[in-house]
């Protein structure tokens, strides 16, 4: 009996549909080669969702996502929808999906492919072979804490307020994700906080330390203040394996880590926590290059790899896809975003075809 999976495929806007089309080609090959059945349930999201139903996250799209084994998303947003009401903006679909699916853990690997070592803004020896994973808490912290807002004081001066809140159970569940993935990697976790200034992150440090003692002594745990972590990431990034941190610190550090690799078009991500996880490239809808067959589809194809690893229990597929990408880069093929002298420039579709051929 062949295994059967349902994947909600949400192409979205801009280059989203272009990179998703290549990912679908790749999934079809994997399906045939492994003798699986993949039911791909394609639904509009973001600006496309708004056009189709007046909402960035249409009811049918949410239903498809909730009932799927995994969600694969392209990208949302674009100039066309910048002027509409905040609650109807394409980006709201992401917040809606995260909260409806209970996705509290965002995993962003920053990996430097051998052939792209020179693309980094850092010295080759600093980033060569770099493979860091940032685990960011996604549904709590200062982005969601109450009270929040802007109020006017009696004397007319305005005051802006946001509140950093973490409960013990929120910290435990994100730390568990980080320790669990570290066990499958190099067994090192660095927990990043600002425990010397912020009480909520003092609790963070305490809870992570306790959990480590109780359940994860096989993993090496260290702690770092966020300012130091930001510095260490550019000074000596290879000291890190898994970094686990709060929503806001993770937002910043994961962008910093991704830039060490030199290309936004190469990096996948996973959001885990609930029954159904979501996978997407870290880049946006790139309206400046949409519709020109120029986008790099590899971040999305590597997101498919993460989907097989974390949702479909087929880590081998992820390994194969990573190796295929490595070999295509070694052979000198590049999309425009990672192009350098002497290399062979290809478009989005041709890059997808190269992956299909190599598979
Ligand atoms: P968002 O707010 O959705 O994150 P953004 O404008 O901040 O959007 P992107 O849409 O990711 O960021 O685009 C940033 C730059 O990177 C653009 O110049 C875009 O063309 C380029 N870019 C993004 N993704 C890719 C890709 N897959 N291939 C090639 N270039 C890309
Ligand atoms: Mg952006």
In CATH, the homologous superfamily of the largest domain goes by the name: Isopropylmalate Dehydrogenase
- Report the principal-axis shape: globular
The strand count comes to 14
Q: Which segments are poorly predicted (pLDDT under 50) over 5 or more consecutive residues?
A: none
Number of helices: 12
Binding site for NAD(+): 78-91, 284-296
Main location: cytoplasm
Catalytic activity: (2R,3S)-3-isopropylmalate + NAD(+) = 4-methyl-2-oxopentanoate + CO2 + NADH
Domain Isopropylmalate dehydrogenase-like: 6-355
Describe this structure in words.
This protein has about 350 residues and is an alpha/beta fold. It folds into two domains: about 1-105 and about 265-359, Isopropylmalate Dehydrogenase; about 130-260, Isopropylmalate Dehydrogenase (3-Layer(aba) Sandwich), CATH 3.40.718.10. The protein is about 40% helix and about 20% strand. It is built from twelve helices and 14 strands. It has helices at about 15-35, 45-55, 60-65, 90-100, 125, 170-185, 200-215, 225-235, 245-260, 300-310, 315-330, 350-359; strands at about 5-10, 35-40, 70-75, 105-110, 130-135, 145-150, 160-165, 190-195, 220-225, 240-245, 270, 275-280, 335, 345. The strands form three sheets. A ten-stranded mixed sheet has the order 2-1-3-12-11-4-5-10-8-9, with helices on both faces. A two-stranded antiparallel ribbon has the order 6-7. Strand 8 (about 190-195), helix 7 and strand 9 form a beta-alpha-beta unit. Helix 6 packs across helix 7. The longest helix has 19 residues, at about 15-35. The protein is globular and about 60 Å long. The mean pLDDT is about 95. It binds adenosine-5'-triphosphate and magnesium ion. Adenosine-5'-triphosphate binds near residues 75, 77 and 337.
